């Protein structure tokens, strides 16, 4: 039985470990933190996140029962709810029928559920194991993991999976012994997490529609909120760093929120809003990709360790889960581990590059375009064409979030073709409207 070391017990590492264990590998997970099920210090990047079809597909492939448990703990969100400056709310469906949904789930619940499943599967979990270095056995070429702390024994495996997040030590080690291309970019946007408590006597009543992702789009910055099962909403404020830095005292925060997000101040509560701004950390957002993702049949990186993306398409974890699905399928189809790793690097890059770009682009859509009449007109035409042309025409959001059978790069290719046609139709409609309006004006002014 081949032995595998998975570095990182985050969402992607746990799913990879489960999938490999089901395929008969003897798996050990090495994680730098303490067991999050026992620790108070959760150190989470966001309290909840959206799981959609690609993520669900990977969960189902690894363990259909696990996927069912996850789906029983989500809140489906069928669209965006746009809050304008006056607090008027307008719903915009994500899908064609109004039934397609992305799903809000508690991040720590999901991580702990996966850890419990990992334990049940007999996978060895070693917490407080911070990877420092990877050496290779001179006799058999196997990777040997060395950890911070002299008392921790090095561990040798047949191969290792690096799922140790954006600042991956596995990736850093890989960069030393393969010619890895690597790009990393911090975007000029930070975030800060807030929350909207539940209402009513038990504080468990939703104060906003729970089945929407709420957005307060204000061009350069925005506020969003996703529901939690207990009646609360987790809300995130995204803004360029100069704005975040200016919001450094209570008066500035209140004035800003009263001006741009008036209805949210009531929901969040003034005191709580100020407390969040005083106490909560500001997170930075980066995008990174590398190539290749592997070294021979010995090391491969997946999830955020291989490709970190900004969170505006809600795909980071979903894409990491899809990495697991793609890799497991290749391990099944290819003649050996080395061939599977090579094929993975060869085929996966274009899909990852596509979703990284889309995630960056979607900030404009969420914070700005959703307010634009031209954008909404284009979206309507997109939906009408989908209805008429059935499967021959699909909106981009549908392909990314609801169609796990269409790879990211294919979705972008199809979208680029469709977008050219959409622009022509949109221009014809706008041109006709302008022409019509000018005729009416002429007629009225002639009288
Ligand atoms: C604000 C925000 C909102 C988001 N919303 C969504 C969303 O709605 N939908 C979505 O799909 N994605 C979302 N994401 C992205 C998602 O959080 C990540 O893509 C996902 O968590 C990546 O999982 P991972 O397991 O690859 O990495 P991580 O979650 O970073 O896990 C890496 C693990 O490796 C461990 N580790 C690190 N270094 C070492 C080391 N040297 N030795 C041993 N262990 C180590 C870490 O402790 C950690 O447990 C969001 C991200 C942010 C920031």
Assembly state: single chain
Would you count the extended β strands for me? 20
Fraction of residues in helix: 40-55%
The strands making up the biggest β-sheet line up spatially as: 6-5-14-15-16-13-17-20
For the record, give the distance between the C-alpha atoms at the N and C termini, rounded to a whole number: 90 Å
Count of structural domains: 3
Approximate strand percentage: 15-25%
Level-2 CATH architecture of the largest domain: 3-Layer(bba) Sandwich
Supply Rg: 24 Å
CATH class of the largest domain: Alpha Beta
Structural class: alpha+beta
What characteristics describe this protein?
alpha+beta, FAD/NAD(P)-binding domain, globular, 3 domains, eight-stranded mixed β-sheet, binds flavin-adenine dinucleotide, 20 strands, 447 residues
What would your notes on this structure say?
The protein has 447 residues and is an alpha+beta fold. The protein has three domains: 3-76 and 101-184 and 288-363, FAD/NAD(P)-binding domain (3-Layer(bba) Sandwich); 185-284, no CATH class; 372-446. 45% of the residues lie in helices and 23% in strands. It contains 14 helices and 20 strands. It has an eight-stranded mixed β-sheet, with helices on both faces. It has a six-stranded mixed β-sheet with strand order 8-2-1-12-19-18, with helices on both faces. A hairpin with a 2-residue loop joins strand 14 (212-218) and strand 15. Helix 2 (53-62) crosses helix 3, helix 2 (53-62) crosses helix 10 and helix 7 crosses helix 8 (262-268). The model has no long low-confidence stretch (mean pLDDT 95). Bound molecules: flavin-adenine dinucleotide (FAD). Residues 7-13, 30-33, 45-46, 49-50, 130-131, 163-165, 169, 191, 236, 283, 303-305, 311, 314-318, 320 line the site of flavin-adenine dinucleotide (FAD). Flavin-adenine dinucleotide binds at residues 7-13, 30-33, 45-46, 49-50, 130-131, 163-165, 169, 191, 236, 283, 303-305, 311, 314-318, 320.
């Amino acid at each position: 039985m081949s032995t595998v070391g998975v570095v990182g017990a985050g969402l992607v590492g746990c799913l990879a470990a489960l999938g490999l264990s089901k395929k008969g590998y003897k798996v050990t997970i090495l994680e730098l933190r303490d067991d999050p099920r026992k620790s108070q210090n959760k150190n989470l990047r966001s309290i909840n996140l959206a799981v959609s079809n690609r993520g669900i597909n990977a969960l189902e492939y690894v363990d259909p029962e696990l996927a069912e448990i996850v789906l029983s703990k989500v809140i489906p969100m069928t669209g965006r709810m746009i809050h304008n400056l006056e607090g008027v709310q307008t719903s915009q469906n994500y899908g064609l029928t109004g039934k397609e949904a992305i799903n809000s789930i508690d991040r720590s619940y999901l991580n702990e559920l996966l850890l419990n499943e990992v334990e049940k599967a007999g996978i060895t979990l070693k917490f407080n194991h911070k990877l420092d270095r990877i050496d290779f056995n001179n006799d058999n070429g196997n990777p040997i993991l060395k950890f911070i702390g002299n008392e921790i024994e090095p561990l040798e495996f047949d191969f290792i999976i690096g799922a140790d997040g954006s600042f991956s030590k596995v990736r850093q080690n890989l960069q030393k012994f393969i010619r890895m291309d690597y790009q990393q970019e911090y975007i000029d946007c930070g975030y800060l997490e807030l929350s909207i408590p539940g209402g009513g006597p038990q504080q468990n009543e939703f104060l906003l529609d729970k089945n929407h992702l709420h957005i307060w789009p204000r061009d350069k910055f925005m506020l969003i909120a996703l529901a939690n099962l207990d009646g609360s909403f987790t809300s995130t404020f995204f803004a360029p760093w100069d704005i975040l830095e200016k919001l450094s005292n209570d008066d500035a925060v209140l004035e800003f929120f009263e001006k741009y997000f008036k209805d949210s101040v009531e929901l969040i509560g003034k005191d709580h809003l100020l407390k969040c701004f005083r106490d909560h950390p500001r997170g930075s957002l980066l995008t990174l990709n590398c190539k290749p993702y592997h070294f021979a049949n010995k090391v491969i990186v997946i999830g955020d360790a291989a490709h970190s993306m900004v969170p505006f398409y809600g795909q980071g974890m979903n894409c990491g889960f899809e990495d697991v699905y793609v890799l497991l399928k290749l391990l099944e189809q290819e003649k050996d581990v080395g061939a599977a790793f090579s094929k993975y690097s060869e085929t996966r890059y274009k899909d990852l590059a596509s979703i990284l770009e889309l995630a960056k682009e979607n900030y404009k859509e969420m914070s700005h375009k959703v307010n634009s009449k031209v954008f909404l007109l284009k979206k309507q035409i997109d939906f009408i064409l989908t209805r008429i042309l059935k499967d021959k025409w699909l909106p981009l959001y549908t392909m990314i979030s609801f169609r796990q059978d269409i790879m990211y790069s294919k979705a972008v290719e199809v979208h680029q073709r469709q977008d050219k046609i959409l622009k022509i139709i949109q221009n014809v409609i706008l041109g006709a409207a302008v022409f019509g309006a000018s005729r009416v004006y002429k007629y009225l002014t002639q009288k």
